[in-house]
Amino acid sequence: MNHALCKLLLAVGLVSLLAGCASKSYIVLLEDPQGGVGSVQLTGKNGTQTLDQARYAADLDGAKAPQPVDPQRFEKDFAGVLAARPILPASYLLYFQSAGVDLTPESQALLARILEDIKGRSAVDVSVIGHTDTVGHAEANEALGLQRAQRVVEILKEQGLQTEALRVESHGERNLLVSTSDETDEPRNRRVEVSVR
Q1: Is 0.85 surpassed by the pTM of this model?
Q2: What is the gyration radius of the CA atoms in the chain, in angstroms?
């Protein structure tokens, strides 16, 4: 689900929650996972206001300019809606040293964070996709991409990964992160994508 739709649904949910139980209904904008904030124009019988800052609120009747929401009031009014939000999918890129299945030190360090993310979800679906650069034959790169994906799964299982919903595949030298010509050694293309949903 795209982030704009998530924000809209959250905003609608926050308004709907309060419409029946609050004496004065209002809308609050929240930041998306990347820190971005959309914009909402409220037009009511008392005027029009534009809401475009995170954690600012405006009354639905458009009477007053948007104001920052008191954090305690926000938690009190929206605790139920916030608790019902699903955890957003996460994607991680792990990179490999040259033509093999050895992770870079930075990627090795990222494995603990991936495992923590997986363990923090009640129902989890994990996708592990191996990629290569364009050095070598396409068939060999397809096999190497699969070996890389399988190696990541093996390491995660050694560290405690327990999930039945696990998909492992290779894209080989297809779906390059950095577009290159054939026989190009590009470190950013030697990767495994781990998606956690």
Answers
A1: no
A2: 23
